[in-house]
TrEMBL record:
One of its GO terms (molecular function) is acyltransferase activity, transferring groups other than amino-acyl groups. Keywords: Acyltransferase, Transferase. CDD domains: NAT_SF. PANTHER family: AMINOALKYLPHOSPHONATE N-ACETYLTRANSFERASE-RELATED (PTHR43877:SF2), AMINOALKYLPHOSPHONATE N-ACETYLTRANSFERASE-RELATED-RELATED (PTHR43877). This is GCN5-related N-acetyltransferase. It comes from Solibacter usitatus (strain Ellin6076). InterPro entries: Acyl_CoA_acyltransferase (IPR016181), Bact_Acetyltransf (IPR050832), GNAT_dom (IPR000182). Residues 4-155 form the N-acetyltransferase domain.
Length: 157
């Protein structure tokens, strides 16, 4: 694992970002319209509005990713986190999440929000150990599969 590194999204990463996310979504759920829109245009949907995409790579091959999507009032949504099945359980998700949290803090974020599904117990445990807490949904989700909402606050409002 010594070659695994986290880096910002770069031109040419679009296909890997799509494929990594499509793999986990289709393993457990189905691709939804919002998935196709976001994954099909990560530059326009995530980066252009002020977000960030982080890629995990091993020896130059993309093995994971996650995104920070800007929200209102100084928040970001932690979204589209994926790790290649052959790298799961090796700390790559933790590396991506830690890098995303550090990036959000450096940008002055007040909070991170995420949506997930109860079927994804390992991911939920990862979020909990990082300091995310379960919260009630305050707005409708754009995803049919979303049944768990979590949040991490950096600064009190």
């Amino acid at each position: 694992m010594s070659e695994i590194r986290i880096r910002p999204f770069a031109p040419g990463d679009e296909g890997a970002f799509f494929a990594l996310n499509q793999a986990w979504i289709e393993q457990f759920f189905r691709m939804e319209e919002k998935d196709r829109k976001t994954l099909g245009d990560p530059v326009g949907q995530i980066l252009a509005p002020g977000g960030e995409i982080l890629m995990a790579e091993d020896g130059g091959a993309a093995i994971g990713c996650c995104a920070l999507i800007p929200l209102e009032a100084g928040g970001y949504e932690l979204a589209k986190m994926a790790v290649s099945q052959s790298y799961q359980g090796r700390g790559v998700g933790r590396m991506l999440m830690d890098a995303a949290i550090a990036t959000a803090r450096a940008r002055g974020a007040r909070r991170l929000f995420l949506e997930t599904n109860g079927k994804l117990a390992p991911a939920i445990r990862l979020y909990e150990t990082a300091g995310f807490v379960h919260v009630q949904r305050t707005t409708p989700s754009e995803y049919d599969r979303s049944d768990v909402c979590m949040e991490m606050r950096f600064h009190e409002d």
